[in-house]
Amino acid sequence: MTQYSYNDLIKRCTDTEASLVTLEKEGHYAVVTMNDPKRLNCLSGPLTVQLLDKLSQAAADTDVRTIILTGADPAFSAGGDMELMQMAHDSIGHQSPEGVTIMRNWIRYQFGGVARLIKQTEKLVISAINGAAAGVGLSFAFASDILIGSEKARIVPAFGKIGLTPEVGTSWYLTRKLGYNKAIEYYLKGQELSAEEALSHGILNQVVAHEELLDAAIAYAEQVHHLPASVFGMAKTLLRRAGEVPWDQAIELEEFIEPICFTTEFHQKAVSRFLGR
To answer: Tens digits of per-residue pLDDT, 205-254?
Structure first.
């Protein structure tokens, strides 16, 4: 049986001509689409590597203010790829020199790399959930700033059903969104949520008709476009941090950050307009 190292796995995943993720730039926003619809955009090795690459390109583009992440119909993403998991089992079971660190590195640097990029970029990241979002694919949506679901969206907590714990930031998200008791109930039941149920739980920001999903995401992108990039970036960073620190530290962050806004032309013109000058 072939033994794989982490570097072997990365090489295998990059040695493909198939385009499994697309990046379309439209002025001040970019749409990143997971594009393996026959497999419900499951996070195969090649798709995951391409997804991190395309998101990195969009995040590095200074013209792009908003990144919209979605999937090619009929799914957002079915989550982890069973064939990739089987490769990990084979390697571990046949005493690969790297042992379980192969999957640790994959989870940290590939899956975790996507989630960290989404959370840490100062651009607005919107997940436009067009169908089932499961497992790690759902984790990527949870890492986003705005979650919009079409009427066909489904939130699928798949970890427990295949003997896994929540990963890639899901435990952090669910305990803060639902509270511990509801989060562990959610994990144990493994019950999928419809778009409307997810909206009622506060998981989705908005639910729209399926054909209006991308337009709804673009509407948020337009709002960001009318703000100074630096100001929105500071606001995103502040709000991310505020949920993790005590009140006195949050107000200190505000006191350091807000005075910077007074130096921008945008703020100065806004005040002048208000005063009729």
So the answer is: 999 999 999 999 999 999 999 998 889 999 999 999 998 899 999 999 99
Residue 199 CB neighbours (<10 A) = 17
> In terms of residue numbers, what domain contains 257?
229-275
Same domain (yes/no): 148, 253: no
Are both 83 and 151 inside the same structural domain?
Answer: yes
Domain membership of residue 163 (yes or no) is: yes
Whether residue 145 is found in the same domain as residue 238: no
Token digits of residue 199 = 């909206």
Q: Measuring CA to CA, which residue among 176, 222, 177, 170 is closest to residue 199?
A: 177
71: alpha, beta or left, given left = phi > 0 and alpha = psi -120 to 50? beta
Q: Is 157 in a helix, a strand, or coil?
A: coil
Buried b (16+ CB within 10 A) or exposed e, 98-122: beeebbebbbeebbbbbbbbbeebe
Q: Do 243 and 194 share a structural domain?
A: no
Does residue 67 sit in helix, strand or coil?
A: strand
